[in-house]
Amino acid sequence: MMSRLFICLALISWASVGRSAPITFNTALPVAQSEFVARAQLIVNQSGSDPSGLARDRTAWAEISVLGYGVTSDLALFGVVPYVNRDLNLDMGTGPVNRHASGLGDIKLFGRYTIYKNNFSGGNFRVAPFAGLKLPTGDDNRGDGLGRLPAVVQPGSGSWDPFGGVVMTYQTLAFQIDAEASYQANSTARGFAFGDVSRLDGSFQYRLWPRTLGSGVPGFLYGVMEVNLIHQNKNRTNGITDQNSGGTRLFLVPGLQYVTRRWIIETSIQLPVIQDLNGLALRNDYIARAGFRFNF
Amino acid sequence: MMKILQRSGLAAMLILLGTMTALAEPQSYSLKVDGLACPFCAFGIEKQLSKIDGVGDLKTDVKAGVVRLTMKDGSLLDKAEAKQAVDRAGFTLRGIEKVRNAPQQAGESQ
Question: Of A17, A100, A183, A240, whose CB is crowded by the most CB atoms within 10 A?
Answer without folding.
Answer: A17
